[in-house]
Amino acid sequence: MEVWIQQLLAWLALPQFGLSTVFIVALISATLLPLGSEPAVAGLLHLNPDLFWQAILVATAGNTLGGAISWWTGALARTAWYKARSLRQVGLDPADAGKPPAPPNKQSRHQRMARVWLRKFGAKACLLSWLPIIGDPLCAVAGWLRLPFWPCVFYMAIGKFLRYLVMTATILHFWPS
Questions:
Q1: Taking the chain (177 residues) in consecutive chunks of 10 residues, what is each chunk's mean pLDDT?
Q2: How far is CA 23 from the centre of its chain?
Q3: Residue 34: partners with Cβ closer than 8 Å, 6 or more residues away
Q4: CA 74/CA 133 separation, integer angstroms
Q5: In 10 A of CB 118, how many CB atoms?
Q6: pTM of the predicted model as reported, rounded to 2 decimal places
Q7: What span, in angstroms and rounded, lies between the C-alpha atoms of 116 and 111?
Q8: Residue 177 half-sphere exposure toward CB, CA atoms < 13 A
Q9: Integer CA distances (angstroms), 23 to 26, 55, 56, 81, 135, in order
Q10: From the CB of residue 149, how many other CB atoms can be counted at a distance below 10 Å?
Q11: Handedness of CA 133, 110, 70, 148 (dihedral sign)
């Protein structure tokens, strides 16, 4: 197992496979896992400044794919939740035998406002998927609310491209090689 991990790390090492590393890190960082991909992009560009646009585009593609995965995660979670809820209402869930009925689902004022806001702006709200902390869950909530997939992906890509462009240029400006 240790040999396999060493081979994987050697394969993903910068700069030989830098763009694939940037893609994978950007994809993982766009899911609900806490990881930042800007240091990987900046690290690659410190080693290979000629790859600026390729790195930005590859990071955008990976991050957008990760956002699409989050969208599908939200959509599938909604389906599973409604299926489990309907089974419980009919009394077909043996795990709930003997338990008191669940209290009604109450949402806080902020949750209601966020839901109204997302429904109002629709897929365009995914432009904000680049934001730290709220961007990744925003993609999952867009899937939960069944906002249209391809427009969401389009707006995710725009927001993520602009983020990588600005953040990477800023990092390279303040920390030149």
A1: 67 64 91 82 87 93 96 93 80 56 63 78 91 88 92 96 93 81
A2: 13
A3: none
A4: 16
A5: 19
A6: 0.78
A7: 9
A8: 9
A9: 5, 9, 10, 32, 18
A10: 15
A11: negative
